[in-house]
Amino acid sequence: MVAASGNSSLDMKETYKTDHILYLPGDIKSVIAVSAVSNNQITTYSNFDPNIQFCAPGGDLAYIDGYVDLNQMMYCPYPTSMDNGLSSIGVPQGYTFSCGTSPSTPAVTAGLADILSCCRKNNQE
Prior knowledge:
With about 120 residues, this protein is α/β, with parallel strands linked by helices. The chain has 2 domains: about 1-55 and about 100-125, no CATH class; about 60-100, no CATH class. It has 2 helices and 8 strands; from the N terminus they run βαβββββββα. The mean pLDDT is about 90.
């Protein structure tokens, strides 16, 4: 199982030591927790832990002159049944901008699935 590590800027290991709080499912030993990076460094919001082995682009929340800098965020699917509120800037319904460890997780999942598929194809399970 691959899961997002969370978006609270917490050291998950220290939080467990001090508050005895697990962040599930990412803190379960058999789960692969994913953190987010932007501009080749961990994002300001991403939870982190020495046991997190994978990270992927997750966008970041940045401002320029008091406005959100959409260039730092991820372009993501959005329910077509809901108004994305972005048509005035040319973003079609069905898409939005977001950031977080959740958008990072599918990239890691896809990469791991590709590796697993290749191994199975070559009988290297």
